[in-house]
Amino acid sequence: xxxxxxxxxxxxxxxxxxxxxxxxxxxxxxxxxxxxxxxxxxxxxxxxxxxxxxxxxxxxxxxxxxxxxxxxxxxxxxxxxxxxxxxxxxxxxxxxxxxxxxxxxxxxxxxxxxxxxxxxxxxxxxxxxxxxxxxxxxxxxxxxxxxxxxxxxxxxxxxxxxxxxxxxxxxxxxxxxxxxxxxxxxxxxxxxxxxxxxxxxxxxxxxxxxxxxxxxxxxxxxxxxxxxxxxxxxxxxxxxxxxxxxxxxxxxxxxxxxxxxxxxxxxxxxxxxxxxxxxxxxxxxxxxxxxxxxxxxxxxxxxxxxxxxxxxxxxxxxxxxxxxxxxxxxxxxxxxxxxxxxxxxxxxxxxxxxxxxxxxxxxxxxxxxxxxxxxxxxxxxxxxxxxxxxxxxxxxxxxxxxxxxxxxxxxxxxxxxxxxxxxxxxxxxxxxxxxxxxxxxxxxxxx
Length: 447
Ligand code: FES
Ligand code: FE
What we know:
This protein is α+β, with helices and mostly antiparallel strands. It has helices spanning 24-35, 159-163, 166-174, 196-205, 210-213, 215-219, 277-295, 297-300, 346-359, 365-379, 419-432, 437-443, and strands at 9-10, 15-16, 40-44, 53-59, 62-68, 74-78, 93-95, 99-100, 107-108, 114-116, 140-144, 147-151, 181-192, 245-249, 255-260, 302-307, 312-314, 320-326, 332-341, 391-392, 412-413.
């Protein structure tokens, strides 16, 4: 099935078909056309510091084994034995010299090369070509300040080109002080009854929902101490004209909506009743100064929401990484990691872990608000009558983009609007139409 471009996403009129969020055939196609051709997040290098370290993860529905080889290089391959498909490593993470499949014992080295086959001489008469039956390696593998991404499509642009202006933002989260970052405290993983795109588009541009969806969570202090941060519940509708608020979407579907921390209080502060408030405040003040020196005035002050196409985000309120793994048209396996500045003192890292549990993840107050909405939105896209009526993506489509200037990227005034969500849907639709990467590179224009 080839999806006709512009049928499911109407950019001119700002309409998106409900079928995109519920149709099993569309879901099957997006695994093929979107997930098998886009850059996907695998994990962080800090999860595998030593040779022989490994962790398991996913690209779409494919299980992926990521290892650190004896040479120190990162490898990524399908965690599926070439004999009968069994998983060659069942643990989530650990350290190994090699991976022995527990079914018949075929054994692979840290790079995925097939090194031992039981009965190689007696049963295969030494004729099995070991070179050709190693684990299937990902086609492109790159790191961005420790974040590991992979892509199955050899034609896809390199990671930096694919990210575009998103890299301008992402560096502020993963390398705030020039010393890199690390993930701590394990990974939250759970299944939500929603289509993955509702989550992704919410993070790429939906600042509109916060003041409504999260109002009660804010009132009970959900974000107290996130980052060791005391955050205010802000009515962003009233800040649309403020030049310190803007949004941008990239050529390949990523983007974010941002507001700059004010000059009078640019550094984050801990809530006053935090026993480590003094140390936390000192850290954030010093971090702000280093960031301003290294990354410039604007990037040192960035706060907001964002996502990298198709299913990755780092929120700025708690620096948690979200990955929305597709598990069916109405099912998403959410993975959430807590990211910390490597240079942060232990009390800041501890505060971050504690605060993160309260904000996003299965116990997070904001996450619960969001998940509930996305489930019901997905339910609302299933019915035959409902599918006759497209969804409205028209907010702010007439806002004219401003060209890049100073240390700001091409953007629109105001952090609110549907342009980023529609831009993500546009990229999805271009891939779904079966266009080659070359065609997309040649013709793709952000909304
Ligand atoms: Fe792995 Fe047979 S399935 S050795
Ligand atoms: Fe939310």
